[in-house]
Amino acid sequence: GNWWIHYGFNKAPTPVGYYPAKLFDKLSKKATQISIGSVVGGSPSIPSPPMGSGFLPSDKAALITDISLIGEDGRMTPFTVNTDRLQSKSSCYSISPIQGAKCSYGGPGGCSR
To answer: Domain Neprosin PEP catalytic, which positions (predicted)?
Structure first.
């Protein structure tokens, strides 16, 4: 069916939108990949801005928390599988591995293309 997006799992989940099933021909049964991330822009002449709080993954970095999967039965399961990271310039931006259903991300920016 449709793929719904919710927020507010510490309270009653609130739907904020969905992807209609007709947009996908291979996702009617299950997903094979989930992407979580952030994007910032820049140009050849203007350095890129900071991402998140401006800190690389650390205690001060921005957090994504309560990462969970919700099954067809509506039950929430913590995200505990191994993940791959894709980072374009790890000196400017980075993301930590997902551990304990959370990860930290960000960076100072300042990169040029």
So the answer is: 1-112
Report domain extents, the chain.
Answer: 1-32, 41-112
Residues 66-78 as b/e (b if ≥16 CB within 10 A, e otherwise) read ebeeeeeeeeeee
pLDDT tens digits for range 67-99: 887 776 777 777 777 777 777 778 888 888 888
Specify whether the CB–CB gap between 82 and 99 falls below 8 A.
no
CA 17/CA 4 separation, integer angstroms: 6
| E strands, the chain, in order | 3-7, 14-19, 62-64, 68-70, 76-78, 94-95, 103-106
pLDDT band at 113 (very low <50, low <70, confident <90, very high): low
Question: Who's near 17: CB < 8 A, 6+ residues apart?
Answer: 4, 5
